[in-house]
Amino acid sequence: MATSSGSCLIISLLVVVVAAALSASTASAQLSSTFYDTSCPSAMSTISSGVNSAVAQQARVGASLLRLHFHDCFVQGCDASILLNDTSGEQTQPPNLTLNPRAFDVVNSIKAQVEAACPGVVSCADILAVAARDGVVALGGPSWTVLLGRRDSTGSFPSQTSDLPPPTSSLQALLAAYSKKNLDATDMVALSGAHTIGQAQCSSFNGHIYNDTNINAAFATSLKANCPMSGGSSLAPLDTMTPTVFDNDYYKNLLSQKGLLHSDQELFNNGSTDSTVSNFASSSAAFTSAFTAAMVKMGNLGPLTGTSGQIRLTCWKLNSS
């Protein structure tokens, strides 16, 4: 009996030790806003400087970086898989064909600068997450705390790009797509407010301006001048009022039926999100508070941490084995 009791005690101690080790491992794998404070203290300022310079040259880049981060996080989590330049990867899929090439160039340029200062330390996933935030700030928008410590994927996930809601989405489809990522209706409406900056190609809104009835007639007519029914690559601002300033005018446009995309106007079309749109249109503070909270939630989708994935040395390709 003494031997049996001793064995039980040893087993119990082992269970406690293993549980403690697992707990510590989990804790160490969590994201932190101070992740690079010691290992690469210049990382944040390098990213900010690179983004500010790029946005000063082309304001659209701020929106493009934000969109790139969104397209990364909605496919297998925020792991920089969108940055891989595979011939059959995510970049080749329809939802990503209209991404601004300049955004990729900016991230790759910043990565090279960060690598020169801190080789093999800062992930591309973290650089993209911070660059998206800094792009918003550069265009007059709010800041938020970006948690860090993501690692980069070791592959691309083209089949999962179907998780990205297309510009033809109905309200129900939008709600379902965001719910799949544990983002609620308020998060969805707030994140859609990213369309207060940037532009969209004609092929993304031609159906809305020619076929839908929930659009301001004069607004639709003005867009048809540069966007034929057959579509095309000509650009139009997503926010007709202040396209290069991050504000709440996007929602004011929706109240006037001047949403550029079908999916934009779906947010205010006698549906369940009408009141949220009205609230954001009347209160800039309400919008920015919801937007920053939603960005933090989105930025924490499925990160690779600890020893998972890798820290790519170049964002557009995997490290050599």
Automatic annotation (TrEMBL):
<dbReference type="GO" id="GO:0046872">
    <property type="term" value="F:metal ion binding"/>
</dbReference>
<feature type="signal peptide">
    <location>
        <begin position="1"/>
        <end position="29"/>
    </location>
</feature>
<dbReference type="InterPro" id="IPR033905">
    <property type="entry name" value="Secretory_peroxidase"/>
</dbReference>
<dbReference type="GO" id="GO:0042744">
    <property type="term" value="P:hydrogen peroxide catabolic process"/>
</dbReference>
<dbReference type="GO" id="GO:0140825">
    <property type="term" value="F:lactoperoxidase activity"/>
</dbReference>
<keyword id="KW-1015">Disulfide bond</keyword>
<feature type="binding site">
    <location>
        <position position="196"/>
    </location>
    <ligand>
        <name>Ca(2+) 2</name>
    </ligand>
</feature>
<keyword id="KW-0376">Hydrogen peroxide</keyword>
<comment type="function">
    <text>Removal of H(2)O(2), oxidation of toxic reductants, biosynthesis and degradation of lignin, suberization, auxin catabolism, response to environmental stresses such as wounding, pathogen attack and oxidative stress. These functions might be dependent on each isozyme/isoform in each plant tissue.</text>
</comment>
<feature type="binding site">
    <location>
        <position position="75"/>
    </location>
    <ligand>
        <name>Ca(2+) 1</name>
    </ligand>
</feature>
<dbReference type="InterPro" id="IPR000823">
    <property type="entry name" value="Peroxidase_pln"/>
</dbReference>
<feature type="binding site">
    <location>
        <position position="77"/>
    </location>
    <ligand>
        <name>Ca(2+) 1</name>
    </ligand>
</feature>
<keyword id="KW-0479">Metal-binding</keyword>
<dbReference type="GO" id="GO:0005576">
    <property type="term" value="C:extracellular region"/>
</dbReference>
<feature type="disulfide bond">
    <location>
        <begin position="202"/>
        <end position="227"/>
    </location>
</feature>
<keyword id="KW-0964">Secreted</keyword>
<keyword id="KW-0349">Heme</keyword>
<feature type="binding site" description="axial binding residue">
    <location>
        <position position="195"/>
    </location>
    <ligand>
        <name>heme b</name>
    </ligand>
</feature>
<keyword id="KW-0560">Oxidoreductase</keyword>
<feature type="binding site">
    <location>
        <position position="165"/>
    </location>
    <ligand>
        <name>substrate</name>
    </ligand>
</feature>
<dbReference type="GO" id="GO:0004601">
    <property type="term" value="F:peroxidase activity"/>
</dbReference>
<comment type="similarity">
    <text>Belongs to the peroxidase family. Classical plant (class III) peroxidase subfamily.</text>
</comment>
<feature type="binding site">
    <location>
        <position position="239"/>
    </location>
    <ligand>
        <name>Ca(2+) 2</name>
    </ligand>
</feature>
<feature type="site" description="Transition state stabilizer">
    <location>
        <position position="67"/>
    </location>
</feature>
<feature type="disulfide bond">
    <location>
        <begin position="73"/>
        <end position="78"/>
    </location>
</feature>
<protein>
    <recommendedName>
        <fullName>Peroxidase</fullName>
        <ecNumber>1.11.1.7</ecNumber>
    </recommendedName>
</protein>
<keyword id="KW-0873">Pyrrolidone carboxylic acid</keyword>
<keyword id="KW-0106">Calcium</keyword>
<comment type="similarity">
    <text>Belongs to the peroxidase family. Ascorbate peroxidase subfamily.</text>
</comment>
<keyword id="KW-0732">Signal</keyword>
<dbReference type="Pfam" id="PF00141">
    <property type="entry name" value="peroxidase"/>
</dbReference>
<feature type="binding site">
    <location>
        <position position="81"/>
    </location>
    <ligand>
        <name>Ca(2+) 1</name>
    </ligand>
</feature>
<feature type="domain" description="Plant heme peroxidase family profile">
    <location>
        <begin position="30"/>
        <end position="319"/>
    </location>
</feature>
<keyword id="KW-0325">Glycoprotein</keyword>
<dbReference type="GO" id="GO:0020037">
    <property type="term" value="F:heme binding"/>
</dbReference>
<feature type="binding site">
    <location>
        <position position="90"/>
    </location>
    <ligand>
        <name>Ca(2+) 1</name>
    </ligand>
</feature>
<feature type="binding site">
    <location>
        <position position="242"/>
    </location>
    <ligand>
        <name>Ca(2+) 2</name>
    </ligand>
</feature>
<feature type="binding site">
    <location>
        <position position="79"/>
    </location>
    <ligand>
        <name>Ca(2+) 1</name>
    </ligand>
</feature>
<dbReference type="InterPro" id="IPR019793">
    <property type="entry name" value="Peroxidases_heam-ligand_BS"/>
</dbReference>
<dbReference type="InterPro" id="IPR002016">
    <property type="entry name" value="Haem_peroxidase"/>
</dbReference>
<feature type="binding site">
    <location>
        <position position="72"/>
    </location>
    <ligand>
        <name>Ca(2+) 1</name>
    </ligand>
</feature>
<dbReference type="GO" id="GO:0006979">
    <property type="term" value="P:response to oxidative stress"/>
</dbReference>
